[in-house]
Structures are given as structure tokens and as C-alpha cells.
Design brief:
eleven-stranded mixed beta barrel; 8% helix; elongated; mainly beta; four-stranded antiparallel β-sheet
Length: 256
């Protein structure tokens, strides 16, 4: 595929994704606020290969509760000037939300599982294409990710017996396809690059959608920072930690 045909195909795909997303129904009102902080480092090995490491911390429950710690490693390979692939592994340490069940009357407490921390292992494989259209850069990234949650035994309170008992949270694996469309704008003679994106999470059904508006600032040759606002809407996710959420994110990147 030559460069011109590739650009036309990418733009058509971008428009289709935007139209599809605009027609998606929102099933619930946004009900939480969180902050996401990320630090990362990237090493360019040669013209095609680079490797990186990143760490992240998230809050939830209107900024009052630690939600997740994570650390990950990745490797990128540039197939062509407009096409790149990457792969990586992330170790997630999640603060799982408390869970309460009720009796048949819907008011009387049955069992209560307090919040607890648990690990998850995640693998991902990406393919990203991008095209420059004047001062705009349009990119489309497709990511397959597989997340494994090992089984875990946690404490649960039984209100009927007025006693604590062990609850076994079964292990689970999940495949997700994440499709992200992003548009950046190159401001003349400026080190700040604003962008907006929409990302769809599909696991045999639409799990959730993320809408992001942000900017990256290249402070120097080696240092970069970023800030964004993100709206996450949950549609069919089976993850108890997924909620509709307003998110403010900040990042720092070091390149060497």
C-alpha cells in the first residue's frame, strides 16, 4: 500500500470510528473522580527498536482511595515510517472495591466483603499506524491485551451468623481488543502538542469507552510532561473496579 492510499484508508477508518462512537448510548451517569499519575523511561536502541519501562498510580472514590499501582516493560519496533508494533507486560496491584449483598427484601445486609488488594498479570500486543495531514497527525492503534487474575482467598462477613468466613475469588483470564483513534495538532514554534482521542474496549461486547483531551510538553531533549482530562463510560464490563469516571492524569517521560 503506497503512502497516499494508506492515508485515505486511515482517514476513512478514523471517521467511521468517530461516527460509531458518537452513536453509543451511555448506560449510567458518571459517578466517580480519580487521578492517574504515570512516570516512564524510554531507550532508543537503533532506528527501529526502542524499549521502555513505566509505572502508574491511580486513585478513585473521589480521590480518597488508592486504586492501583502498576509497573510495566515494553519493546517497540518501527516497521515503516508510518507503522509501528509493540509488545509489553504489566504487573497490576489493584485495590478491589468492597462488595455487599442483600437478602431478598433488598434492604437487609447478607454478606460484606471489604476492599482487598490483589495482583493481575497483563500482556499486550499493539499495531499503530499514523499519517500527517497538514499540521494534524491522525493515528489508529489496535491493541490486543490478555489479563490474568490469579485466584485469591479473602475475608467476608456473614451478617446472619455474625461471623467472618473465607471467600474464594476464582482466577479469571480475559481477552480485550482496544481500538484508539487519536488526533494531534502541531502548533508552529511551540513545544506543546495538544491531542484528543477516543478508545473502545471490546471483549465480545463493548465494555467501556474512554474520551481524552490533553497536551504533551517537550521540556527538553530528554524530558517531557503531559496532562489530560479523561471521561470513562462503562457499558458492559464485568470488572467491579470499572466505573463511570472523571479522570485527571499527569505524566512524566524520560528519553535517553
Amino acid at each position: 500500500m503506497n503512502t497516499m492510499n494508506y492515508r485515505v484508508t486511515l482517514v476513512r477508518g478514523a471517521l467511521l470510528l468517530l461516527v460509531t462512537t458518537a452513536c453509543l448510548p451511555l448506560k449510567a451517569q458518571t459517578n466517580d473522580v480519580g487521578m492517574w499519575y504515570e512516570v516512564g523511561a524510554e531507550k532508543k536502541i537503533d532506528k527501529r527498536w526502542s524499549v521502555g519501562v513505566a509505572g502508574e498510580f491511580r486513585t478513585r472514590n473521589h480521590l480518597r482511595t488508592a486504586g492501583r499501582w502498576s509497573v510495566g516493560v515494553s519493546a517497540d519496533y518501527k516497521i515503516a515510517p508510518w507503522l509501528k508494533t509493540s509488545a509489553g507486560y504489566d504487573l497490576l496491584w489493584d485495590n478491589n472495591a468492597e462488595k455487599i449483598t442483600y437478602e431478598d427484601d433488598g434492604r437487609t445486609y447478607n454478606k460484606w466483603t471489604p476492599h482487598y488488594w490483589g495482583a493481575r498479570h497483563r500482556l499486550h500486543l499493539d499495531l499503530r499506524g499514523d499519517a500527517d495531514l497538514g499540521r494534524f497527525n491522525v493515528s489508529l492503534r489496535e491493541r490486543w491485551q490478555y489479563t490474568l487474575r490469579p485466584g485469591k482467598t479473602v475475608a467476608r462477613y456473614d451478617f446472619a451468623d455474625e461471623a467472618w468466613e473465607d471467600r474464594v475469588v476464582g482466577g479469571k483470564g480475559k481477552h480485550v481488543l482496544r481500538s484508539r483513534l487519536q488526533v494531534e495538532y502541531n502548533i508552529p514554534h511551540a513545544k506543546v502538542t495538544p491531542y484528543e482521542s477516543v478508545e473502545l474496549f471490546n471483549a465480545w461486547q463493548l465494555d467501556k469507552v474512554r474520551y481524552t483531551l490533553g497536551a504533551d510538553w517537550k521540556v527538553s531533549k530528554h524530558h517531557g510532561v503531559g496532562m489530560y482530562y479523561r471521561l470513562q463510560t462503562v457499558n458492559g464490563s464485568d470488572d467491579d473496579n470499572d466505573t463511570n469516571e472523571h479522570i485527571i492524569g499527569m505524566s512524566y517521560q524520560y528519553k535517553f
